Amino acid sequence: MTLLEARDLVVRLPVEDGVVHATQGVSFSVAAGEVFGIAGESGSGKSVLTQALTGLIRGAQVSGSVTFQGRNLLRLAARDLCGLRGSQIGMIFQDPLSSLHPFHTIGRQIAEVIHVHERVGGAEARRRVVAMLDRVGIADPDKRFDDYPHQFSGGMRQRVMIAMALVLNPPLVIADEPTTALDVTVQAQIISLLDEMRRERGTAIVLITHDLGLLSRIADRVMILYAGQRVEIAPSRSLFAQPAHPYTAALLRSSPGHHSPGGEIAPIPGRPPSLLVPSRACVFAPRCTEAMPICVARKPPLRLFDDGARALCWLEDGARAPAPRTPAGAPPPRPSRGGEAPILEAEGVRLSYPTGRLLGGRGRHEVLRGIDLALWRGETLGLVGESGSGKSTLAQVLAGLVPTTGGHVTFEGKRLDGLDSRGWTALRRQVQVVFQDPFGSLNPRRRVGAIIGDPFRIHGLAKGQARKAEVRGLMEMVGLDPEHYNRFPSEFSGGQRQRIGIARALALKPSLVILDEPVSALDVSIQAQILNLLRSLQRDLGLTYLFISHDLAVVRHVCDRIAVMRAGEIVELADTEDIHARPGHLYTRMLLGASHTAPIPAAVHTRRLVETTNEVAT
Amino acid sequence: MIRFLAGRLGFAALVLFCLSAFVFLLFFVAPGDPARMVAGDKATEAQLIQIRSNLGLDRPILVQYASFLSRAATGDLGFSYRNQQPVASLILNRIPATVSLVVGGTLLWLAIGIPIGVMSACHVGGLRDRIGQSFILIGLSFPTFVLGMMSLYLFYFLPRQAGFTLFPPGGYKPLLADPLVWAWHLVLPWTTLVLVTAAIYARLTRGQLLQVLGEDYIRTARAKGLSERVVVYRHALRATLTPLVTQLGADIALLLGGAIVIEQVYGLQGVGALAVQAVKNQDRPIIIGVVLLGGLFIVIANIAVDLLYVVLDPRLR
Amino acid sequence: MSVAPTGDAAFDAVRQAETRDEVVQRGSASLTLRRLRRDKASMGALAFIVVLLAFASAAPLVEAWTGHSPIAQYRQSGMTAMGLPVGPRAEFPLGTDHLGRDVLVRLAYGARVSLLVGVFASLAAATVGLSVGVLAGYLGGWVDVVLSRAMDLVMSVPFLLCALALVSVCGPGLWLSVGVIVFFTWTTMGRVVRAEVVSLSRRDFVRASRSLGAGPLSIMGHDILPNLSVPIIVYTTLMIPSAIVFEATLSFLGLGIVPPAPSWGGMLSDAAANGIYLVAWWLVVVPGAALLMTTLAFNILGDGLRDALDPKPRPIRRASWRGAPP
């Protein structure tokens, strides 16, 4: 039974510079009780789409039709739409902290949903809220009813959001990246809770995410959006087994989980198009490896295949099966550490902050509790842990930016706490850091040339033309156009900005580079480009990496050894393959169990074209 | 909580101490002989010496300051040079007018400023926003005394020339005698005092509300099916109260300044008028007393604001 | 953690679209100018300010043209038989005041005082506020505690009362006015800058510079200051009108510029004395309007600069959005 049907949905957002064509003619339907996945990279229009159809985006121009329970949502009076939101359509958002009102108790916020849509007394509403909180796994719900959001942990807050969305038992729930802001282990719990609720209540779930691995686990059908267009919609099984659209195939291929450690990942070249100009041909053609002349000239038709897949593509039998990639040359020789002294060594490193205010500083908050770690020249050591495990703090300590409160760090045989100012300056040339957020780590008011030239300026090297030549060389090395020397960071995309950050880190030819979640803020297709770049730079320049990440798949692909951190301690440290094959610590097993990657597409495709239409006109 | 209160009280004491030290020192280093101001021009040298010793002016400054502080703590602020009346009672007599002006003004400005800000933010870019923004800009730019003079001209003088009395030209009538007459005399001063500050609050409310309306939890509130009115008033406005209260604390000083000017324009016999008169007469004990009283008022208001802040934001508890 | 839009999805789409637009390659200065030029109110305000500057600097020319000194009293031609001021007429385009002085000439000389005090005091207060704010925000620790408390202290002082006390001791004067204004207004800038610096120094690009080995001076100069240009420009502009009003208020209370030297506040004070303006409207309308227009112009310009320098991507409002109407 079809619960929600969207036909030819077009969302335009007028902005200062023109109109953003957020979605262009998207059609889909959601059946009662199913999990319908919407996937796409940032800017693909997946969030705009769902929020526009419930009327949550101000100023958006929406056309097409959205039928829900026999009524067109786009034509509904505002009052009627309000009546549907919350009672018939529940919504769960990404960040459970910012999505809950900080000044109202959670009980009151959930009860509000009941009061808006039904005439019930306060006691009755409270009873129902408490029952719901109990159902989503909040311990002691009667007491926690009167707590404020800041008194809950991230996962618990998301449970509160779920309770709020489900308290009136709506037939449809829209979950917009419900697990993205959470730790891996918590993610798994939230997803199984959602799945449980759906089975129990027959609620249909529209699950919006960038994480294909997640969808492959629970979605019944999946829609892939790219630059505002529905490039593919298919039953989950066939989409992940044999993607019909080259974009879907490329996305699946670029996930690092599919590649033997040390090999090249197949990235998607280029970057998504601007949404200010509606496309006249295939939106993906410029990045497509299978593009034909017709792809850049005319809009693609809609192809329907016998396995239920629909793709917006000129290819008649779907995307080609990915050719088995030969590993790029021989796997790099494993760095030998026989006899050689480690480049960086941490012994019993401790770090704690005093807690409490001026006078009552009795307690101390321990961030690092005795870390022993050694790093040998030429290797990549992965540091994995969830938020709050102290992995980023450890990186700061190892880089010498935060002094330890116990133990010591040795770099190339010299203890960091005993460095004079000259030694410190030398250290700053040898150890470099690449930061997570490519938007925050570049000064928005300075030109790229100046940013990459900063290391030279600070250390008084290469002046004038010489510096400019150095910078241009660096830009070329990391795959940037040297002609963009005079641009500001805001004129670059996320992936390009991360390249700028890498170029800056490599300017002084360091021996150790600390990469603090270098790809976490990037889309999958861009991630692969950056990981490949890092790998080739390591090979060419003989760099040593300390790679910090929460993502096991990425770490497994990049690292020689992995250290698993939890609550300020390293609970396990072993070779990458050993950790995956024989996880020793319980926590490592938990992490591995919680992380999931999409299945590898089958090598052979067996599908037949059933029908070709031009249904999608715009 | 207790530590927080203690901290605030300590800071309040510091403010008052610095303030008193500042004015005291100011008058000590200032040219001019207080004894001569007390005695008048015809006093003999012997009389001056007598007065100096009576006032304790012949003792070292620190001793003078200490005795001033200990007396001030008991509410004794000394005597006016001009007419030898106790400063405390002089000020006390003037307090009803100033408090009426300030408290009524505050209530009125919140009652005007916040709704205008809400109106402007809810229709951002529209006609009502333009009207709100124009009000804000004009209100912010209007010097209080110009506004006061203009409204006196328009609402007192012109009607009187036409033969009737719309509003009185000024003066203060006690509240207890007749509340209506009291309010009638204060309508013009209130509106004059309020326009500037109401504009500040309208702008602040508008800005904060626009920011809050973009927050995720407002989207959640809309997704719950709440009507826009409930979203704005129960969810968005609730979150803007904290910055408004913070601003209120910072604006108390501004308010007192405004009150001085208003009292001058409308001939209200308030504390501010007393201070201006004292400055013209070089009547130092009164100036010191008024400055300290103003400081005390600001300090108390700030503590009240801090407490309110804790009440409003559960994260601080 | 990972990707995914935070905040309003619409804004994110806009941001995406903006960053991906490769065609735009203008410097930020020219973009700002372009935005400002589109803003008619700001351009009007700017034009007014330019005219006012010309008027103030041409005060001696005005004096020569009318042949009236700003302090001379024209008791014959400038007053009625009953000793009242005369209204606007050929000889006195803006009338005379209660002593028979030419209002136009006094207005021109008063403009000098207002602009001088307004601009000078705001620049000085901005400098002090900037230095204190940067020091407190960047150094943190006890320096921050002391400086922040000092700012709190100044802000909890009844400033007009203190100004009164100060003036009563030192006697009124132009430079004392400037000093008083600077002393009581630098905290605005100080607090804004401090908050900004605190949030900037937590940003990754500052951490990046530090990890490259940059010293505090280099970080302040190259990383923090360029990012403060917007608040500095905007708040300095917005401090000018409040300084002008502050000065006029002091003069109005008889504590600013020493008579008979003309100032707008003093002219209004003269008009208020004995309620003379009730029979001579121009005595309040002329300087009052000049004062109001000047502060209004600076406020509009300040707001316009803020919008032009720091544009936030917001969807343009159309009449037909489908959300619930308020």
From TrEMBL, chain A:
Its main location: membrane. It comes from the Bacteria. It is a peripheral membrane protein. One of its GO terms (cellular component) is plasma membrane. SUPFAM superfamilies: P-loop containing nucleoside triphosphate hydrolases. The keyword Metal-binding does not apply. Coiled coil: none annotated. The keyword Transit peptide does not apply. Pfam families: ABC_tran (PF00005), oligo_HPY (PF08352). NCBIfam families: oligo_HPY, PRK10419.1, PRK11308.1. This is ABC transporter ATP-binding protein.
From TrEMBL, chain B:
GO terms for cellular component: plasma membrane. Its main location: membrane. It is a multi-pass membrane protein. Residues 95-309 form the ABC transmembrane type-1 domain. SUPFAM superfamilies: MetI-like (SSF161098). Keywords: Cell membrane, Membrane, Transmembrane, Transmembrane helix, Transport. The keyword S-adenosyl-L-methionine does not apply. The chain crosses the membrane at residues 9-30, 99-122, 134-158, 182-202, 286-312. It is found in: Cell membrane. InterPro entries: BPD_transp_1_N (IPR045621), MetI-like (IPR000515), MetI-like_sf (IPR035906). Gene3D superfamilies: MetI-like (1.10.3720.10). GO terms for biological process: transmembrane transport. It comes from the Bacteria. Belongs to the binding-protein-dependent transport system permease family. This is ABC transporter permease.
TrEMBL record, chain C:
It is found in: Cell membrane. It holds the Pfam family BPD_transp_1. The lineage of its organism: Bacteria, Pseudomonadati, Pseudomonadota, Alphaproteobacteria, Hyphomicrobiales. The chain crosses the membrane at residues 43-62, 113-138, 150-168, 232-258, 278-302. One of its GO terms (cellular component) is plasma membrane. Belongs to the binding-protein-dependent transport system permease family. This is ABC transporter permease. It comes from Lichenibacterium ramalinae. It is a multi-pass membrane protein.
